[in-house]
Design a protein that fits this description.
The complex is a heterodimer. By secondary structure, chain A is α/β, with parallel strands linked by helices. Chain A has a single domain, classed as Thiamin diphosphate (ThDP)-binding fold, Pyr/PP domains (Rossmann fold, 3-Layer(aba) Sandwich). Chain A has 8 helices and 5 strands; from the N terminus they run H-H-E-H-H-E-H-E-H-E-H-E-H. In chain A, strands 1-2-3-5-4 form a 5-stranded parallel sheet, with helices on both faces. In chain A, helix 5 links the parallel strand 2 and strand 3. In chain A, helix 1 runs antiparallel to helix 2. By secondary structure, chain B is of the alpha/beta class. Chain B folds into 2 domains: 154 residues, Thiamin diphosphate (ThDP)-binding fold, Pyr/PP domains (Rossmann fold, 3-Layer(aba) Sandwich), CATH 3.40.50.970; 120 residues, Rossmann fold (3-Layer(aba) Sandwich). Chain B contains 12 helices and 12 strands. In chain B, the strands form 2 sheets. Chain B has a 7-stranded mixed sheet, sandwiched between helices. In chain B, helix 3 packs parallel to helix 5 and helix 8 packs across helix 12. The longest helix of chain B has 14 residues. Chain B is globular and about 60 Å long. Classes of the chains: A alpha/beta, B alpha/beta. At the A-B interface, helix 4 and helix 5 of A face helix 3 and helix 5 of B. Chain A: InterPro entries: THDP-binding, Transketolase_N. Chain A: This is Transketolase. Chain A: It comes from Candidatus Yanofskybacteria bacterium RIFCSPHIGHO2_01_FULL_44_17. Chain A: Pfam families: Transketolase_N.
Chain lengths: 263, 293
């Protein structure tokens, strides 16, 4: 298994793969994927107990990317970790390919839930955590939600449910890149989750050491919320906090320039 | 039917450790005993229907069989996208059992009416829809299908037929044979249809499963090409199924069902039946008109 001493190198590779896939297909939410790429990498590199060769093993830890539009991020990490071939990424969003703009659990190895409509993945993760408790399965459940997604009522319904049922096997990571501030201010998310009864921490969502420490020491008695302060488009100066790139894909010239930025 | 629902679910909880019951803060008293016996599998989950459906999908992803129970408009209409995506699209199995459909809760007004449950659920590919006519039929249909790996909607009614039929999931039943017209009776309307068809030369088909629709039995039992569909929800819902089943035959199709509007009166379900022309007499008039037309 790769360890974090090579993280920077892998982050470069992953971002390159995402940019090339999006350019080839003319599809994809690149900045949203970049926002959670460090978190995804640390999860699959160091935290999750999951075998790419046996992705449906009952004892595996589960990760649900509830903000499904960041699919290019999870695809790139799954491919790099051997769930499927990296070359598949270049077929992203093509008519007959399995890798769509939002992930489909019935098509892609390693994808736990088909997400896309915001506010579905979190309550599904609550259900998975409940199921594991009923079945006395020790596996853990992680879910990544966006700050925009946190406008949805189901996010707060899920926060209530997980706390009430003391789902200590559940960790919710909030990708707090503040892209939603322009619409609806969420305020102090940490205090909000605390008031719902969660163990809550705030981290730099791009610092691998902080990500690892927070994700590997979950509360033993209640669900854990990680408020990950992130930058939308992280790693590309052109895209960082630039809303114009939210659902824009580069042309060939722009790709060359963006790849140089990464280097 | 609600009492039978409790009995049936108590039995499956006992016999099948995969079953999990989620109550939307209704029917809780009835399941007190089950809740004590199976505290990890019986939950009064609260009044948050959308998350309840998604949560139950999470249970289904891990091999459990969820049963979600609450009032029809909140179970179906409020949670429609969750039913569509989390169960339909993801191909998961679960059971959604409603009370208070159409105007069973007439006096509570439009917020608690639900005549659109069947029409909209039909639009979710793979969704199974079951309308039992008696408590015993619910028991038989539920036991046959609850663990079949598909999302299945069961509509419990406050009304019931006087006698149970021998029902099978996915199959309709020939209750009466005749030549001048074929009358389709859905769920609790069978008593009214049989009374209305008395001494008339018509075939009566009884449907408790609407999706998947039993096309074969209709094809075999429609000698006249005249069909009256009697449905206890917005009328016209089964039109496509009937036309497809009998294609390319030219047919005349009429409906005795609920008009596409809000029912702004209160009172009782039987008062609504009269006002909306859903009585035995109304159905009889429609059959006669169809035969003689």
């Amino acid at each position: 298994m790769h360890k974090n001493e090579h993280s920077t190198e892998y982050q470069h590779t992953l971002r390159r793969l995402i940019l090339e896939s999006a350019t080839t297909s003319g599809e994809g939410h690149i900045p949203s994927a970049f926002s959670i790429l460090d978190i995804l990498w640390v999860l699959y590199d160091q935290v999750l107990n999951i075998d790419p060769k046996n992705p449906n093993d009952d004892k595996r830890d589960r990760l649900i990317v509830s903000k499904g539009h960041a699919s290019l991020g999870i695809y790139a990490v799954l491919a790099e970790k051997g769930f499927f071939k990296t070359s598949e990424l270049l077929n992203f969003a093509k008519f007959n390919n399995s890798l769509g703009g939002h992930p489909d659990r019935n098509k892609v190895p390693g994808i736990e839930a088909s997400t896309g409509s915001l506010g579905h993945g979190f309550p599904m993760a609550v259900g998975i955590a409940m199921a594991l408790k009923i079945k006395k399965n020790k596996a853990k459940v992680f879910v990544i939600i966006g700050d925009g997604e946190s406008n949805e009522g189901t996010v707060w319904e899920s926060a209530l449910l997980a706390s009430h049922h003391e789902l200590s096997n559940l960790c919710c990571i909030i990708d707090y890149n503040h892209s939603n501030d322009k619409a609806l201010k969420l305020g102090n998310l940490r205090k909000k989750f605390e008031s719902f009864g969660w163990e809550t921490r705030t981290i730099n969502g791009h610092n691998h050491k902080e990500i690892y420490t927070s994700l590997s020491t979950l509360s033993a008695t209640r669900p854990t919320a990680i408020i990950a302060e992130t930058i939308k488009g992280k790693g590309s100066k052109t895209m960082e906090n630039n809303h114009a790139w939210h659902h824009k894909t580069p042309n060939k010239e722009e790709l060359e320039s963006l790849l140089k930025e990464l280097a | 039917m609600r009492k039978q629902f409790v009995k049936t679910v108590e039995a499956v909880l006992k016999n099948d450790p995969k079953v999990v019951l989620l109550l939307g803060d209704i029917g809780v008293w009835g399941f007190n005993n089950a809740s004590k016996l199976y505290p990890d599998r019986v939950h009064n989950i609260g009044i948050l229907e959308q998350s309840t459906i998604s949560l139950s999908a999470g249970l289904a992803m891990n091999g459990l069989i969820p049963i979600v129970h609450t009032i029809a408009p909140f179970l179906v209409e409020r949670s429609y996208e969750q039913l569509k995506l989390d169960f339909g699209y993801q191909g998961l199995g679960g059971n959604f059992v409603s009370v208070g459909s159409s105007y069973d809760y007439a006096a509570l007004g439009c917020s608690h009416h639900c005549p659109a449950d069947v029409p909209i659920l039909k639009q979710i590919p793979g969704m199974e829809i079951v309308l039992p006519g008696t408590p015993e039929e619910f028991n038989d249909l539920f036991l046959e299908s609850y663990g079949n790996g598909h999302p299945t909607y069961f509509r419990l009614s406050e009304q019931k037929n006087s006698e149970s039929q021998k029902v099978k999931f996915g199959k309709a039943t020939v209750v009466q044979k005749g030549t001048k017209a074929t009358v389709i009776a859905v769920g609790i309307l069978l008593d009214r249809v049989l009374e209305a068809s008395k001494n008339l030369d018509v075939t009566v088909l009884y449907y408790t499963t609407l999706a998947p629709f039993d096309s074969a039995i209709l094809k075999k039992n429609c000698p006249s090409n005249k069909i009256l569909v009697c449905e206890p929800y917005y009328k016209g819902t089964l039109a496509t199924e009937v036309i497809d089943a009998l294609a390319p035959r030219p047919i005349k199709i009429e409906f005795a069902g609920l008009p596409h509007k809000f029912f702004t009166n209160y009172g009782t379900a039987s008062e609504h039946d009269k006002f909306l022309k859903m009585t035995t007499g109304d159905i009889k008039n429609k059959i006669k008109k169809l035969i003689n037309g």
